[in-house]
Specification:
- By secondary structure, the protein is mainly beta.
- It has a single domain, classed as Jelly Rolls.
- It is built from four helices and 13 strands.
- The chain has helices at residues 2-13, 15-18, 21-25, 195-204, and strands at residues 41-43, 49-54, 57-63, 68-73, 78-84, 88-95, 102-124, 128-136, 146-153, 156-170, 173-184, 190-194, 211-232.
- Strands 1, 2, 3, 4, 5, 6, 7, 8, 9, 10, 11, 12 and 13 form a 13-stranded mixed β-sheet that branches.
- The radius of gyration is 16 Å and the shape is globular.
- Pathway: Glycan degradation; xylan degradation.
């Protein structure tokens, strides 16, 4: 957990880092962490990290071992997360490998502070980490990106940007890779996300995906509190 420790030290020691915490959150990779045995309920009293398959869905969950975080795998495409305190966490359900499909979701999302409700995924060749943000808390995560433009999908405008992550943890170990963001203007807690529309728009901005690895509808949180109950289909 060298990365997380260094991030926390930077946040505690520099006000500039406190003003932009999601920039560091973006460096977290679920799959790069050491797994523990799968369970229906993962309660943080150490550093939980689990991924696998349940009821036809792929799930993955990671947290840094600080604060209080509970992740519960429900039936089918449902899951729940509660979190509070000085924690970094990300988890959700989806597919592995991902694909250009439609995500249908409903979420009871309550947040006090910095968190994101999003599609989260990776590709290889090229190595890309991507997010389609449907809702967020106190901080707009798209602020970390170099803006490439805007496009319309699923009834709203999305702002598209990218960031180059240098020598950061990834699904292939420590690598330099592109991070792509699409942030929805009109926040929502339920709806349909047409991934093909986003992927096609990214191509127009010369943002290229590779071969799909895992793909989640996820909750990502950093130094905040809240709860989410998600059903995905």
């Amino acid at each position: 957990m060298v990365l997380i420790r260094s991030v926390l030290l930077a946040l505690l020691g520099a006000s500039s880092a406190l003003s932009n915490p999601v920039a560091e959150l973006g460096s977290i990779d679920i799959e790069a962490r050491r797994p523990v045995p799968n369970s229906e309920l993962l309660i943080r009293d150490s550093t939980p990290n689990s991924s696998g398959y349940k009821d036809g869905y792929y799930y993955s969950f990671w947290s840094d071992g600080l604060g209080s975080v509970n992740y519960t795998n429900g039936r089918g495409g449902s899951y729940a997360i509660t979190w509070s305190g000085p924690c970094s966490t990300i988890g959700g359900k989806g597919w592995n490998p991902g694909r250009a499909k439609k995500f249908h979701y409903s979420a009871d999302y309550r947040t006090n502070g910095n968190s994101i409700l999003e599609v989260y995924g990776w590709t290889t060749d090229p190595l890309v980490e991507y997010r389609i943000v449907e809702n967020f808390g106190s901080y707009n995560p798209g602020s970390v990106a170099q803006i490439k433009g805007k496009h319309i999908a699923d009834g709203s405008e999305y702002t598209v940007g990218n960031v180059t992550r240098y020598n950061q943890p990834s699904i292939q170990g420590t690598k330099t890779y592109q991070q792509i963001w699409s942030v929805r203007r009109n926040k929502r807690r339920n709806g349909t996300i047409s991934l093909s529309d986003h992927f096609d728009a990214w191509k127009k901005f010369n943002l290229t995906l590779g071969r799909h690895n895992y793909q989640l509808f996820a909750l990502e949180a950093y130094f905040s509190s809240g709860s989410v109950n998600v059903t995905l289909w």
